[in-house]
Model the fold of this input.
Amino acid sequence: MSTLRNKVQLIGNLGNDPEIVNLESGKKLAKFSIATNETYKNNKGERVTDTQWHNVVAWGKTAEIVENYVTKGKEIAIEGKLTSRSYETKQGEKRYITEIVCDELLMLSK
Done:
């Protein structure tokens, strides 16, 4: 049960082509976002689709797979952990970001 403490599983579509970063250390990083959709009926009986965007990062071999096979619009399933971090902009403003660090990836589109 301890493996469930911080586990995220999502199925969604890529909003843009992944950004690939080759670091000086030789490691590869892939950054991308996926959209998940939830459909429900509101109190008027109208069908409403709620889209949520999720920031995802992948490292190493997973980043290589993303670089070679994943493009804008593709449907994928990911599994990973949720992380939060902060950084400071050039103007000195503190920003916060929540990301999913992807450990596993399954391509669902052809």
About this structure: The chain has a mean pLDDT of 93.
